[in-house]
Predict the structure of Ferrochelatase.
Amino acid sequence: MDATSFCGALPQTKLPASNRNFSRSCPRARSVVSVARHSSEEFQQPDKLYSRESLVVSSSSSANKGMTASGRSYLSGPVVKRNPVGQAFCAASVVGVGAYCEGFVDSHLHVTEEKVGVLLLNLGGPETLNDVQPFLFNLFADPDIIRLPRLFQFLQKPLAKLISVLRAPKSKEGYASIGGGSPLRKITDEQADGIKMALKAKGLTANVYVGMRYWYPFTEEAIHQIKKDKITKLVVLPLYPQFSISTTGSSLRVLQNIFSEDAYLSRLPIAIIQSWYQREGYIKSMADLIGEELQKFAKPEEVMIFFSAHGVPLTYVEDAGDPYKDQMEECIYLIMQELKARGSYNDHTLAYQSRVGPVQWLKPYTDEVLVELGQKGVKSLLAVPVSFVSEHIETLEEIDMEYKELALESGIENWGRVPALGCTSSFITDLADAVIEALPSAKSFSTTRSTSEESDRDFLSYAIKMIFGSVLAFVLLFSPKVITAFRNRLF
Ligand SMILES: C=CC1=C(C)c2cc3[nH]c(cc4nc(cc5[nH]c(cc1n2)c(C)c5CCC(=O)O)C(CCC(=O)O)=C4C)c(C)c3C=C
Ligand SMILES: [Fe+2]
């Protein structure tokens, strides 16, 4: 077995002891987790900004509840901006990334009698060029990707059809250049096998399922199988380290819809790991990969580490309270702290890639920063994709081809790229630990009901949002900028 790979074979060597989490040493984080274990209601804040369909979302760390990030208090870094999103996924338990499992042995012994399932959530990608347009349709038909006010939601599908047809030729070119399809399904299946084996090696037998948001195997198929297998406890693990409304949030909304309408599923104890970007195992695995790539440069200490994250539209963060940007910044901070602890003091920067459409996205933009760095005289650059843990079109085509070419044209002479984590064994082991830590907090979906007062408040905020949203959508949809964007094929 490849020393760094956990996929494809049972581990030969003794697995490392359960990875501690960065937040473990933080007493505050510990108390957060104990709330998560005993009362999911305390996480629910129904008047928060992101509750399109009263889906309540939350990242699992203390950082997302407006506290100083657990990792930061541990490392005594700067304080993170308070984030407005801090909600639990309905009645299901939300698990702190640093879930502190006192009495784990008891819980563990108990869970061995259960039929445990792990559901990995991911985006999905077209497997052939013929899949590209329908895949894009599914993506743009998602109300968490194109956020229309309720009044205009009847336009969602026609708009998705239009944008997917217009964008398909450009996307097809991209997929053609990486072999004719997305590698996402294969890699995610391998990660699922790896997690299953890592869990087994830790004494927990579990079925691991893959549920994709926009392509096969769809989340609905995975849930169908979970029901068929009569799973008695489920851990939901999105394969996005950081939470975004557009990724984890969207997949959880699908789950919420399915679970709320099914008697068996609504009683199934479920734990959701909303984000895990500050887990020690993840941070260390990222630092390992960066360290290895740095050594390939003639002068590693002179290399600029360039974190490139997938962007989201600015309104997600500024208006809808998406914690994505804060979590991303904290994640980069933790990785850099880890590198410093290992003696690497490289300069670093963070930029956002892959914007789509005419609206403003998180800045700075990757392409613009690369040009600026080249102009400023940076000669060696190591690109680090940081929002996704598999190779995909945006690493293989956008970074490896487009951005590399742009960087070299802009004066950067030495280019490197850190591979995605994929099946790196320390990473897979850490995800398995996250599952084990989450398990005791599983709660059934049906244990909490919203009060009538909450419903009233929801209705009021819905009415306000609908009125303002409609006006905004009208202005946006028919603005010259959007019309120009279509003409210029920005979509
Ligand atoms: C954390 C990761 C991701 C975020 C956040 C995200 C938001 C987001 N994406 C689009 C539009 C597209 N994304 C596409 C592909 C794609 N997106 C991610 C990840 C995130 N997206 C991945 C991993 C992939 C690739 C899957 C694969 O096939 O390998 C595409 C299709 C490709 C293309 O045509 O460029 C689009 C379109 C939006 C609008 C958005 C936030 C609102
Ligand atoms: Fe995307």
Summary: The chain has 17 helices and ten strands. The pocket of fe (ii) ion (ligand 2) is lined by residues 310, 354 (CB under 6 Å). The radius of gyration is 22 Å. The CA atoms of residues 287 and 336 lie 8 Å apart.
